[in-house]
Design a protein that fits this description.
alpha+beta, elongated, 6 strands, two-stranded parallel sheet, about 180 residues, 4-stranded antiparallel beta sheet, 6 helices
Length: about 180
């Protein structure tokens, strides 16, 4: 198991190794790695499948600029997926928390959503509001998602979003991103 050199993990090192699990601590300050020994090929396969799912579901091909967020999201999902022979997921093993599936998996990577809607207009969700693409689910029970705002062409973090019928201009805008 590869994990960040956080104080909570260092304190649990003896307990984890007593379970017969070899623990490798990364250098301080690095991002938390995938909490199991997997090849980069598995991450690539999962990421490609997720990208293909966005293309199949929403009719656009996600641009390469979203690949880092896609890989980070894929790693978060793998950390929260049950493994053969383990009662707990890697996330539950290291954090001690149970997974909040309702919050952490309430949207899909690449999903097109309305993240801000004018208060004065409440009827037609197909044309009003600020459309965005979900590029990462934060997955810490907060329900926060990182999105790419299509109209303003920038990234933001949002807690609230709405699903709606995706207008053609949104799909065109996403397909035109280089």
């Amino acid at each position: 198991l590869t994990f960040d050199r956080e104080s909570a993990i260092v304190a649990m090192q003896d307990e984890i190794e007593a379970r017969g699990i070899r623990l490798t601590l990364k250098a301080a300050g690095q991002k938390v790695g995938l909490a199991e020994e997997v090849s980069i090929r598995l991450i690539r396969e999962k990421a490609r499948a997720t990208k293909a799912g966005a293309r199949a579901n929403y009719g656009y091909t996600p641009a390469n600029q979203f690949n880092i967020d896609l890989c980070l999201d894929t790693i978060s999902v793998l950390n929260r997926t049950s493994k053969d022979g383990y009662e707990l997921t890697p996330y539950e093993l290291f954090s001690g928390d149970h997974i909040d599936y309702i919050r952490d998996f309430r949207c899909r990577w690449g999903e097109l959503v309305v993240v801000k809607k004018p208060k004065a207009i409440s009827s037609d969700l197909r044309t009003t509001g600020e459309w965005a693409m979900v590029v990462r689910r934060i997955m810490n029970h907060s329900g926060v998602i990182k999105v790419y705002l299509i109209g303003s062409k920038r990234y933001a973090y949002r807690l609230k979003f709405k699903r709606a019928i995706v207008p053609e201009w949104v799909v065109s805008a996403m397909n035109s991103i280089g």
